[in-house]
Design goal:
Elements lengths: L1 H52 L9
Length: about 60
């Protein structure tokens, strides 16, 4: 009887750890996506400035 209870507790701890890891991964993915969006926006802004100056990355005024 006692062993069964210990196994239950152990299994519960493993599930908690797994759930925590999944949440960490999800949070990391969301932050990664947000960072990617910010970099895209920054890159777009830089390209616009280069176009205004007349030398966008191969597709400015030629």
């Amino acid at each position: 009887m006692k062993r069964g209870r210990e196994e239950e507790r152990k299994r519960g701890r493993e599930e908690e750890r797994k759930r925590g890891r999944e949440e960490e991964r999800k949070r990391g993915r969301e932050e990664e996506r947000k960072r990617g969006r910010e970099e895209e926006r920054k890159r777009g802004r830089e390209e616009e400035e280069e176009k205004v100056r007349g030398r966008g990355r191969g597709r400015g005024r030629q």
